[in-house]
Design brief:
The complex is a heterodimer of chains A (419) and B (280).
Chain A (H helix, E strand, L loop, with lengths): L1 H9 L3 E3 L29 E5 H12 L3 E4 L6 H13 L3 E4 L3 H13 L4 E5 L1 H17 L3 E7 L16 H6 L8 E3 L6 H16 L2 E7 H5 L1 E5 L11 E3 L30 E3 L13 H16 L8 E4 L4 E5 L4 H13 L4 E6 L1 E3 L3 H7 L5 E6 L5 H9 L5 E6 L8 H13 L1
Parallel strand pairs in A: 3-4, 3-5, 5-6, 6-8, 7-8, 13-14, 13-16, 16-17
Antiparallel strand pairs in A: 1-10, 2-9, 7-15, 12-14
Chain B lengths: L30 H14 L7 E5 L14 E4 L5 H11 L4 E7 H7 L1 H10 L3 E7 L34 H8 L3 E6 L3 H13 L3 E7 L12 H4 L1 E2 L8 H10 L4 E7 L26
Parallel strand pairs in B: 1-2, 1-3, 3-4, 4-6, 5-6, 7-8
Antiparallel strand pairs in B: 5-8
Helix pairs in contact in B: 1-6, 3-4, 4-5, 5-8
The chains are: A alpha/beta (419), B alpha/beta (280).
Chain lengths: 419, 280
């Protein structure tokens, strides 16, 4: 779907990176709709897999062929799984000297036309924030996986917490739109990471994947996740494109990106505010135009139903994300056995906020329970900043390391329904 | 869809590597001549703009990519070497040159400098050293003399200077040279050798800041060709560099270390082949 849209957008002056002869051919790139089947892994296969491995495989399936990273608990296994896997499929993993280097390396590699990713946890994400802003301003697609742990600072490195919501959705200086997605099961780490690569490439934007220690280091038996055709290709410039403008103002906000090796379209990618040609500019007009362009390309994208898992009916809704989704599902089924019907909205796309979709999902709801694993209610604060939540709103939250349990949620739902 | 048509390959002149964008530098800045040296070196090597990338951080010197016609990347302060390493490792077919200054390269980017030397990716690192932060209007950098008076450090920092060439050598750079912006041809020749030498090449270019360090106008009288030739013995080079006065120009060290280049693009498995490891 996305690729077809892109071809239409591209018109006659653009084509896809795969056609640029100077770019090394990356074997194993996923073609849209291509079968992922192999004899050893049929559709009915069951897997023994950790969330961190699933994340790594999702990156590869999405087309990532360059990864730079720095060891950090609990994200290291994403990198350790990717190191040999990338070599197998024609990519490369580099161990960087620190997280500042990791993210700048992947920005450099992606500038060179190769889909790129890094994986880290809260302290590393904190260090990467400046360069995430660079990826926004210079419009370089990258994916940053944050396997969340207890924070702040060194915090509780080997225990889970959902306390990086605020930094993920707000943690850049300037007006810096970014994509934030969160898988909601061990196996969903695969598809959601693949989706993040697809979105980053399609929208020439950084995407943050909020996984957590619970998913990352849980080894689970899962059904083989369905094949997803998320294989976003970035819109690239044609050789010798006439009067090429890297940051051309388009209706979608997406501009053809010239990949080094492409003749006649040399440009300088810049973290300085710039004109449509990429020339540094401090002018009010250029700033306003480019801010609006970068915002438009994220807001205008059709994210589809994958933005959230929405289940059930009832006038109580539970809104959650990530690893709280499992206990919420269990609590809902127990409550249903007690005759209490509830809805679930497990948000996979946190940013950009999907206000209309959430309003639709919550239509007719009288009570909203927001469930998250952190002390200050970061997810609820974010929801309130972006949405008008209907009816009475309650927060159910607790920081790590104690998990949110189905049992306590079940009682909460039943008690509330009788209140 | 546009068909990719190869244009006939015509020789590219130094002028073709200049952009039409005028530098923001002060009149008399040494960095103007460095642009000239870059363009001459690129032309002399027969490079093409589309296959050349100049990566930089933040500061006066880091403005260079926009003044050239080649692919350019003007990133964040101090991280140019990391961005350049990612680019070169992902795209080994490109010629990658990094432009930096003494603040960007030795202070905020100091850690990356050390590890870039150690990693030995095949690229050329050019630091325009004027012993001052110029873009922020005159603060001391790691190469500023300890008694240099400034608003930020009245009476001087009292901190000894950093010795970049020796650090590059100790950290494993494969090529170490010093050049002077006032000699654009000599600098271009050094850049040609730096780019031709496999691995990480480090070129310090003394490039006067006439605005905040007007006394550096005298550098033209202080520089001289190094009285010794190029050596491949790091101990000998280190001893020599440690004892010179900072004004000896030339290629002081050229080693023979193989560059770091993981085999990008060689594996031929399909992603689905990786699933075998998950199957129960």
């Amino acid at each position: 779907m996305a690729t077809a849209t892109h071809n239409a957008r591209a018109g006659s002056t653009c084509h896809h990176a795969a056609n640029v002869p100077a770019v090394p051919r990356l074997s194993g790139n996923v073609a849209p709709g291509a079968s992922q089947e192999s004899a050893a892994a049929g559709k009915d296969a069951r897997w023994l897999i950790t969330g961190n491995q699933a994340t790594g495989y999702g990156a590869v399936r999405g087309g990532v062929r360059f990864v730079a990273g720095y060891p950090i608990t609990p994200a290291t296994e994403v990198l350790e799984w990717l190191a040999p896997a990338l070599a197998d499929v024609g990519g490369v993993l580099v161990q960087a000297e620190d997280e500042l280097a990791s993210i700048n390396m992947i920005i450099g590699a992606s500038f060179g036309g190769v889909p790129s990713l890094t994986a880290t946890s809260g302290p590393g994400l904190s260090l990467m924030i400046e360069a995430l802003g660079l990826a926004v301003a210079a419009e370089v697609p990258i994916v940053v996986v944050d396997v969340m742990r207890g924070g702040p600072s060194t915090g509780i490195p080997a225990k889970s917490e959902q306390s990086d919501v605020s930094i993920a959705v707000n943690g850049l200086h300037g007006d810096a739109p970014r994509i934030v997605v969160a898988p909601n099961s061990v196996s969903d780490c695969l598809v959601t990471t693949q989706w993040a690569v697809h979105l980053a490439e399609t929208l020439q934007s950084p995407a943050i994947v909020l996984s957590d220690q619970f998913f990352g280091q849980t080894r689970a038996v899962v059904d083989r996740p369905p094949d997803a055709t998320y294989a976003g290709r970035r819109l690239t410039a044609a050789p010798n494109a006439d009067a090429y403008k890297r940051y051309a103002v388009t209706e979608s906000g997406i501009s053809p990106m010239a990949i080094p090796g492409n003749p006649g379209t040399a440009y300088t990618a810049d973290g300085l505010e710039h004109t449509d040609r990429g020339i540094p500019s401090s002018g009010a007009r250029d700033h306003t135009i480019q801010l609006a362009k970068r915002e438009r390309k994220l807001l205008g994208h059709e994210y589809g139903d994958f933005w959230a898992d929405i289940e059930g009916e009832g006038d109580i809704a539970v809104v959650t994300f990530g690893s709280c989704t499992g206990p919420v599902r269990e609590a809902r089924s127990r409550a249903a056995a007690d005759g209490v019907q509830t809805r679930l909205v497990s948000m996979r796309l946190l940013a950009p906020a999907q206000a209309d979709r959430l309003a639709k999902a919550l239509a007719g709801v009288k009570r909203v329970l927001v469930v998250e694993q952190n002390h200050s209610g970061q997810f609820l604060k974010y929801l309130r900043s972006e949405f008008q939540l209907p009816g009475e709103v309650k927060s159910f939250r607790r920081p790590g390391p104690l998990p949110i349990r189905a049992d306590e949620l079940h009682h909460q739902l039943v008690d509330w329904s009788r209140a | 869809m546009t068909t990719a048509t190869a244009r006939p390959t015509v020789p590219i002149s130094a002028r073709d590597f200049k952009s039409d964008y005028n530098p923001i530098w002060c009149p008399g800045c040494g960095d103007y001549s460095v642009v000239l040296s870059f363009t001459r070196a690129f032309a002399s090597l027969g490079l093409r703009p589309e296959n050349t990338a100049v990566v930089s951080g933040i500061g006066c010197s880091s403005r260079i990519p926009a003044y050239l016609t080649s692919y350019g990347f003007h990133g964040v302060h101090g991280r140019s070497l990391a961005a350049a390493a990612g680019l070169k490792l992902a795209r080994p077919d490109l010629t990658v040159v990094v432009a930096s200054g003494d603040g960007d390269g030795y202070s905020i980017g100091g850690n990356h400098f050390m590890h870039a030397c150690r990693r030995n990716v095949d690229m050329t690192y050019v630091v325009m050293d004027n012993h001052v932060y110029g873009m922020t209007k005159g603060q001391p950098s790691p190469t500023t003399e300890p008694d240099w008076n400034s608003k930020l450090s009245p009476g001087g920092t009292g901190v000894r200077t950093f010795h970049p060439l020796v650090i590059a050598l100790a950290a494993g750079a494969n090529f170490v040279a010093r050049a002077f912006s006032g000699d654009p041809s000599g600098t271009a020749n050094v850049l040609v050798e730096a780019i031709k030498t496999p691995g990480f090449s480090f070129v310090e270019i003394l490039s006067p800041c006439v605005t905040f360090r007007p006394e550096q106008r005298e550098w033209k009288n202080a520089v001289r060709p190094a009285p010794v030739g190029t050596t491949n013995d790091p101990a000998r080079a280190a001893r020599y560099i440690m004892t010179d006065d900072g004004f000896n120009l030339g290629i002081l060290y050229r080693g023979e270390r193989a560059p770091y280049q993981p085999p990008m693009g060689r594996g031929s498995k399909q992603p689905a082949d990786l699933e075998k490891g998950f199957a129960i």
